[in-house]
Amino acid sequence: MAFVEAYNLHKTYRMGRNNTLHALRGVDISIEAGEMVAIMGPSGCGKSTLMHILGLLQPPDRAANPPPRILISGVDVTNLSDSRRTQMRARTMGFVFQSFNLVPTLTALENVALASEYAGQSRSTAAATAREALEWVNLGDRAHHRPTELSGGEQQRVAIARALANRPALILADEPTGNLDSANTAEVLEVLRKFNREHQQTIVLVTHDREVGATCSRVLLMRDGVIGDEHPRAAA
Questions:
Q1: Domain count, the chain
Q2: DSSP label at 216?
């Protein structure tokens, strides 16, 4: 059953009076529940824009014909209000980015707890949830360290713990290993694959790294704002 579906996604950026960038040019995509899918392609092909639209972080062009549609678990979320989009993200999705996006003045525990607080948990409940999430990524002993006291790999695992804290059905990861060495890349991917296998979380992972893509069950190839091909993978 398709968990994420989108049809005729266009995204145009006005870069100036006479300069227009067509980031997406009519993308259709369907992702099954429990899949771990990689979206791959060269820089500027539109893969991050696609992920941001699927994650309700920005809307597609409304003027497309036929009109764009985005469905999450069968619910049409294309035209939700800003407040409903925020609720959907907080309760249904988790995000991991290349730059970690941790608050430098907060500890690892406090950074992870933010996700649960945004989803409506009390501060004490969010803290307990955060402790559990840090244990999932083997960072329970680093809970009270700030980002500057953590390695790059540890910071990314904190970011993953934050994304997993509310047990979202959908994880969206944009170049999650882009700033990591090979050892930390392997560790981060193993955490994501573990939750995909054991909890059937649907994961959409944007990357330009073929080795990262090879760990996913399916690879969608993008170029010039369209999905041009796909390859099944037999990830262990």
A1: 1
A2: S
Domain that holds residue 81: 2-101+168-232
pLDDT string in tens for the chain (236-residue length)? 799 999 999 999 987 777 888 999 999 999 999 999 999 999 889 999 999 999 999 999 998 899 999 999 999 999 999 999 999 998 899 999 988 999 999 999 999 999 999 888 999 999 999 999 999 999 999 999 999 999 999 999 999 999 999 999 999 999 999 989 999 999 999 999 999 999 899 999 999 899 999 999 999 999 999 998 766 654 44
Domain membership of residue 76 (yes or no) is yes
Q: Is 220 left (phi over 0), alpha (psi -120 to 50) or beta?
A: beta
Q: Considering only CA atoms, which of 94, 115, 100 is closest in space to residue 156?
A: 100
The three-point CA angle 135-212-26 to 5° equals: 110
| 51 residue type, one letter | M
For the residues of 176-191, what is the DSSP string, one character each? Answer: TTTTS-HHHHHHHHHH
Q: How far is CA 108 from CA 104, 121, 168, 185, 230, in A?
A: 9, 18, 19, 20, 37
Task: Tell me if the bond preceding 42 is cis, omega within 30° of 0.
Answer: no
Cα–Cα dist 210/207, whole Å? 8
**Residue 125 falls inside a structural domain:** no
pLDDT recorded at residue 235: 44
Task: Give the CATH number for residue 226.
Answer: 3.40.50.300
